[in-house]
Amino acid sequence: MIRALVALLLVAGLCLAAPLQAAELDFAKALKIGSGPKVVVEFTDPDCPFCRSASRYLDGRGDVTRYVFFYPLARHPRAREKVGYILSRKDGERAYHQVMSGALDGAATLASTPRGNRLREEQLMIATRAGVTSTPTFMINGRILTGFDRARIEELLGK
């Protein structure tokens, strides 16, 4: 019942007062970006234009550490391939930035490894268990925010 309510509110795009259960998220499976004192948990799709905008914005903040979990949407047919590619690279952060910038959008294929593909599926399960239904979804200071709402993110993180 609670999961259905959370999913309904997420779909409606509302910011919830109830936190995601951060203790249940396996941050060892996330792609870590940055080293700032403020933590942002990010659920993203590499082909989502709103996710890409949010990524550019968060890249410009030196005060943030991001824990990125991928949630490739079915309506983006190459998203799963791109996630597998990112999670297969030794330098996942660099690969993330290449993909999110659009630099690899025209690539015929993107190589992945069994380990990267397995991690992609584990991240998808983590996102699903967390109640994520759309991208981008963020957890900031115990709040859930869906969509790229720069003003709301700045409100939660400070400018």
Describe the structure.
Helices cover 41% and strands 16% of the residues. It has 6 helices and 5 strands. The protein has a single domain, classed as Glutaredoxin. The chain has helices at residues 2-11, 49-59, 79-88, 92-101, 114-129, 150-157; strands spanning 31-33, 38-44, 64-70, 137-140, 143-146. 38% of the residues are buried. α3 (79-88) packs antiparallel against α4 and α3 (79-88) packs across α5 (114-129). α2 (49-59) links the parallel β2 (38-44) and β3. By secondary structure, the chain is α+β, with helices and mostly antiparallel strands. It has a 5-stranded mixed beta sheet with strand order 1-3-2-4-5, sandwiched between helices.
Q: Please identify the structural class as seen in this structure.
A: alpha+beta
Sheet with most strands: 5 strands, mixed
Total number of helices: 6
Q: Briefly, what CATH class?
A: Alpha Beta
From the alpha-carbon coordinates, what is the Rg to the nearest angstrom? 15 Å
Total domain units: 1
Secondary structure: elements and pairs:
Layout: H1 2-11, E1 31-33, E2 38-44, H2 49-59, E3 64-70, H3 79-88, H4 92-101, H5 114-129, E4 137-140, E5 143-146, H6 150-157
Parallel strand pairs: 2-3
Antiparallel strand pairs: 1-3, 2-4, 4-5
Helix pairs in contact: 3-4, 3-5
Domain Thioredoxin-like fold: 34-143
GO molecular function: isomerase activity
Pfam families: Thioredoxin_2
